[in-house]
Amino acid sequence: MxxxxxxxxxxxxxxxxxxxxxxxxxxxxxRDVDALLARTEAGMGGRLPPFAEWHRDHSSVxxxxxxxxxxxxxxxxxxxxxxxxxxxxxxAGEENLxxxxxxxxxxxxxxxxxxPPTLSVCNTESLAEQIQATFSGARVVKTLNTVTxxxxxxxxxxxxxxxxxxxxxxxxxxxxxxxxxxxxxxxxRNVIDLGDIKTARGPEMYLPLWLQLMGNLGTPMFNIxxxx
Length: 228
Ligand SMILES: NC(=O)c1ccc[n+]([C@@H]2O[C@H](COP(=O)([O-])OP(=O)(O)OC[C@H]3O[C@@H](n4cnc5c(N)ncnc54)[C@H](OP(=O)(O)O)[C@@H]3O)[C@@H](O)[C@H]2O)c1
Description:
Elements: E1 2-6, H1 10-21, E2 25-30, H2 33-38, H3 51-57, E3 62-65, H4 66-71, E4 75-78, H5 85-92, H6 94-97, E5 101-104, E6 109-110, E7 118-119, H7 127-134, E8 139-143, H8 149-153, E9 165-168, H9 172-186, E10 191-195, H10 201-205, H11 207-217
Parallel strand pairs: 1-2, 1-4, 2-3, 4-5, 5-8, 9-10
Antiparallel strand pairs: 6-7, 8-9
């Protein structure tokens, strides 16, 4: 499948690398390819190498501006900073999103007051709903935003995969296809369909608890298991 992954950070890189490994044709979308390759700074306190260094080891991931990446895609992942997501999608071109499954893994984090970040959208709305409302032709499915990047593509790395991931979206066929992709390409076994796109509010509002747990546990390698 032709898959575009919007985002050059930890999540975009992790999803792209896994999807290439699974033999998909992957284009990573960014604002400016030359600027991205020219960056020399490491991210995430030194844990994320400069992009060019990462790309040398993952050269089969193609690079393109968001609009070009969107045009060629059968399916798109949004792994961009929540505060920039709507602008990124606008720059990708509404016509390039029409009819396509848009898997949104972003979180609406506002870092303007330092750590911990607050939520820029919550309670009565979610970023996923804003995306769906702004790009009505896109088939938005919210998922994977409740786990760290490494767990997104390798759930077995935590407790042998015995834990849960959520999906939310209005389009049942799109959700079914995303559930299938989560299972076949990433190895998820337990997927809970929460309901329509409004149900993305809960997973997005989980982020403050996720951040607190990461601090207490000293690792991002954990997830929720729903027992009932
Ligand atoms: N890190 C995790 O493990 C994790 C887990 C779950 C969910 N998430 C969510 O996944 C998303 C990606 O997270 P991340 O840590 O990989 O990367 P990030 O640093 O949050 O986002 C990087 C991406 O956002 C784009 N971006 C940032 N500011 C922009 C602006 N002003 N205008 C246009 N584009 C802008 C960057 O574009 P360029 O490529 O042009 O620089 C880049 O592609 C976030 O919403 C995050 O909350 C992260």
